[in-house]
Amino acid sequence: MPTLSKRTQNFTDSVIRRMTRISNQYGAVNLSQGFPDFEPPRELLDRLAQVTREDFHQYSITWGARNFREALAAKQSRLMGRSINPDSEIVVTCGSTEAMMAAMMTVTNPGDKVIVFSPFYENYGADTILSGAEPIYVPLYPPEFNFNIDELEAAFKQHPKALILCNPSNPCGKVFTYDELKVIAGLAEKYDTFVITDEVYEHIVYKPYQHIYFASLPGMWDRTISCSSLSKTYSITGWRLGYIIAPEPVIEAAKKVHDFLTVGAAAPLQEAAVTGLRFGEDYYTELQAKYTEKRDLFLKGLDDIGISHTIPQGAYYILLDISEFGYASDLTFCETLARDVGVGAVPGSSFFREDVNHLIRLHFAKKNETLYEALNRLEHIRKKIAKQS
Ligand code: GLN
């Protein structure tokens, strides 16, 4: 057989998705890959049922069905404090996974550098490799996961083409403050750099923290490529609906990249999702209350068991400290956890540039009963997982 491309050899399969397969194999409560086990809003499902009988079965316009883009522009204009043009400033993509990839391919040339904060969502590593870019990692320091301004500026001095900003952040749950965003904005301006955001958890933020759209900072619209999706906001991760919002010249190029990557997102799903995009403020308030309850329930359960953990300000992930078990490999620990305790988690090492082996990631986007079941199982963790000497 001829050899395969070098680029495919430079990254592994997704550890997050692999942990879902391992969880399923052992019948574990799967708190690894972040997706809900509760239903999407009824109104979306009802509309989806109707749409199957309507005329939405052929390609939509490649950069997104007009109805969807208009509803999205209305919603995001309200939130981002700027009138977004649905024709020239939006591309609808197959999830934010495609949005991020298309954004990277739109702004970088092979060999360009891109700043990535560590810990980071594993896709960014693969995105840089697939687009031929080279990551410069800047650490976020626990417990608040703050960055060091000098370290960030040192990265900017290497003349990166873009910085990737996941806010609220997966996996550490950080919500960047206005002051932190101002620092990033100042450096992006000084070194003439794009900022590619991943804001899929924009509506999952815990009081008193608040999500601030990077594009809404003074002067930042022109250099920000905002990526997000409907997956987490409406509990429809399988619908694969995401988007890029950016200035017209960026979108013009991104439309071409997107068109040749996927042609377009699923037309019937775009139409059904319009119902969600038109929800009033109440929906988002309730979503926040629902996730706050889950977060508090789960954190209390972990505290009762006595495992130390991060406290998320946003998103729905918790990093647990497993140092006491003395495992050299967090991947082996997660396999043991799925098999012997019956809970699926993601090894922390798949999110860190640094050599980190003592953290695992769990998520709490699950029904309360699922979370209680996971906590019941975790209660016996010290009996079921022997300490390694
Ligand atoms: N973003 C989710 C996570 O971090 C889901 C990842 C995925 O599989 N697309 O778990």
Features:
2 domains, globular, single chain, 389 residues, alpha/beta, Aspartate Aminotransferase, domain 1, three-stranded antiparallel β-sheet, seven-stranded mixed β-sheet, binds glutamine, Aspartate Aminotransferase, domain 2
Distinct small molecules bound, one entry per kind? glutamine
Q: Please tell me the CATH architecture of the largest domain by its name.
A: 3-Layer(aba) Sandwich
User: How does the overall form come out from the CA principal axes?
Assistant: globular
Strand content is 5-15%
For the largest sheet, list the strands in their spatial order.
Answer: 2-8-7-6-5-3-4
Q: Tell me the name of the CATH homologous superfamily of the largest domain.
A: Type I PLP-dependent aspartate aminotransferase-like (Major domain)
Q: What is the helix tally?
A: 13
Number of strands: 12
Low-confidence stretches: none
Helix content: 40-55%
Summed up, the domain count is 2
Report the average pLDDT across residues: 97
Output the helix-strand order.
Answer: HEHHEHEHEHEHEEEHHHEHEEEHH
CATH class of the largest domain: Alpha Beta
Sheet having the most strands:
7 strands, mixed
The CATH topology of the largest domain corresponds to Aspartate Aminotransferase, domain 2
Measure the end-to-end span.
45 Å
Q: Specify Rg, calculated over alpha carbons.
A: 21 Å
Structural class: alpha/beta
